[in-house]
Amino acid sequence: QVQLVESGGGLVQAGGSLRLSCAASGRTFRSYAMGWFRQAPGKERQFVAVITWSGGDIRYAPSVKGRFTISREDAKNTLYLQMNSLKPEDTAVYYCAAEYTTSQAMRLLPSEYMYWGQGTQVTVSS
After folding, report:
1. pLDDT digits (tens, 9 = 90+) for 11-43
2. Nearest CA to 34 among 64, 76, 78?
3. Do 103 and 50 form a contact (C-beta atoms < 8 A)?
4. At 79, phi and psi to the nearest 5?
5. Rounded to an integer, what distance in angstroms lies between the CA atom of residue 89 and that of residue 108?
């Protein structure tokens, strides 16, 4: 089992940057596939970026590719999302997710993750 706590959200102007962090409890963080998802008001939760347990494969949603970077630091049990060139449409609650697996398969659906953080609000003003 793993517990996830996100931080780093806030209010930023369009064109600005934020870095989200997701701190995970437990000793087997490196055995989890990880992902960032977001949910805007009235919309379904959607994937933003995912990374395999080994860090060997990464996938981004087309809307954030080239602007966001996902990374993991297993020694610190931490997942990151660097967000640059932010746009008002990036405004949402951002969630960190984890799934225990030894597979390299990419997991793009929220239903494929068992563990979730509480979310952190990101608001981008125009």
Report:
1. 999 999 999 999 999 778 888 999 999 999 999
2. 78
3. no
4. -110, 145
5. 20
